[in-house]
Amino acid sequence: MHYCDYAPQDPLHTSYHNDEHGFPARDETVLFERLILEINQAGLSWGTVLRKRETLLAAYAGFDVDAVAAFSADARERLLADPGIIRNVRKVDAAIANAQAVQRLRAEYGSFAVFLDAHHPRPKAEWVKLLKRHFAHVGGEIVGEFLMSLGYLPGAHRPDCPVYTRVLAAEPSWCHAPASTFQ
């Protein structure tokens, strides 16, 4: 079942499906949030992550990259004790390490978004290899969903979904690449 089949009928998913999923984003906090949300979703339902989104936002300092990158051992322990978030040590450690990775990419490329743009377009398998070199706890599913949610890869919405037309109007990156790139 595709996300477009059930999300519009489920209040938990409606806003994300209609207003965020597949739309391009440039803001570093949004990019970092999507990465952290996708990492936290691994092995769980997207509904679980959306239910915990507000507490994740608070726990991870509003997804401010510099704040998370500076988390101390005490902050890490606070996260691991917080029942409002997903308390998986690999996911918590990945959030901190990935904030530091974003800082390195920012220093090299100017921003996280410029880093992504510099490597677009490419097939998903190549994206996976690239992001695994820079980020912790990412694999094919996480990378694919992260990039699809931000418009770097196609497939966030079915062409018959009413949101698809709005996504196209926002000109996601995948629209500017040959379709053969993603096959």
Explain how this protein is built.
The chain is an all-alpha fold and 183 residues long. It has one domain (26-155): Endonuclease III, domain 1 (Orthogonal Bundle). Helix content is 61%, strand content 0%. Helix 3 (28-41) runs antiparallel to helix 7 (89-109) and helix 3 packs antiparallel against helix 10. The longest helix has 21 residues, at 89-109. It is globular, with a radius of gyration of 16 Å. It starts with a helix and ends in a 14-residue tail after the last helix. The mean pLDDT is 97.
| Radius of gyration computed on alpha carbons | 16 Å
The description of the largest β-sheet is: none
**Uncertain residue ranges:** none
State the fourth-level CATH superfamily.
Answer: Hypothetical protein, domain 2
Number of helices: 11
End-to-end gap: 21 Å
Average pLDDT, to the nearest integer? 97
CATH architecture: Orthogonal Bundle
Structural class: mainly alpha
Helix and strand element order: HHHHHHHHHHH
